[in-house]
Design a protein that fits this description.
This protein has about 160 residues and is mainly alpha-helical. About 60% of the residues lie in helices and about 5% in strands. The strands form two sheets. A two-stranded antiparallel ribbon has the order 1-4. Strands 2-3 form a two-stranded antiparallel ribbon. The protein is globular. About 10% of the residues have low confidence.
């Protein structure tokens, strides 16, 4: 059960961290993919540093914080994450339940103090752990190649 939750959380984190990067091509390839990567690559060096990713995650956090109280409620989190999976009205009840369970498991995982809210600090701490896992050469920066590799070859545990 713990390993199943870990795999679920790992993939959900990839979605959270890399959603804007899933379409990332090499930064020099042009088009929309370049713009997505470039929007996170603030210093335009072709890599996304931990600080750049934290800044992007802060922006994402605040976009999900609908009531501007610097906390994500379970409802705010569910609404924001559900949008990433598509229109719930177009899903089967089974799909909605499965996605809802994943969202709830991930929320519980990042709500470190168990108070039913996720703070920016909790959110960024969770993202940092997975940033480290995506940064396969441990240089503190993500390249488009590292992200592509992580998304193409999930590790089976």
């Amino acid at each position: 059960m713990i390993m199943k939750l870990f795999r679920c959380c790992r993939w959900f984190t990839l979605i959270l961290i890399a959603t804007p990067l899933i379409l990332v091509a090499d930064p020099g390839s042009g088009g929309q993919n370049k713009n997505v990567f470039a929007s996170l690559d603030a210093d335009n060096n072709g890599q996304i540093s931990r600080q750049e990713m934290l800044a992007a995650q802060s922006k994402r956090f605040h976009s999900m914080d609908v009531d501007d109280n610097d906390k994500l409620s379970r409802d705010e989190f569910r609404q924001a994450m559900a949008k990433r999976y598509g229109d719930p009205d177009q899903m089967s009840p089974r799909q909605r339940k499965k996605i809802g369970n994943r969202i709830d498991a991930w929320f519980k995982h990042i709500d470190q103090d168990g108070d039913g809210n996720v703070t920016l600090s909790e959110y960024q701490k969770a993202m940092s752990v997975y940033f480290d896992r995506l940064d396969t050469n441990d240089d503190g920066r993500l390249t488009s190649q590292e992200l592509k590799k992580a998304l193409q070859s999930p590790k089976k545990k």
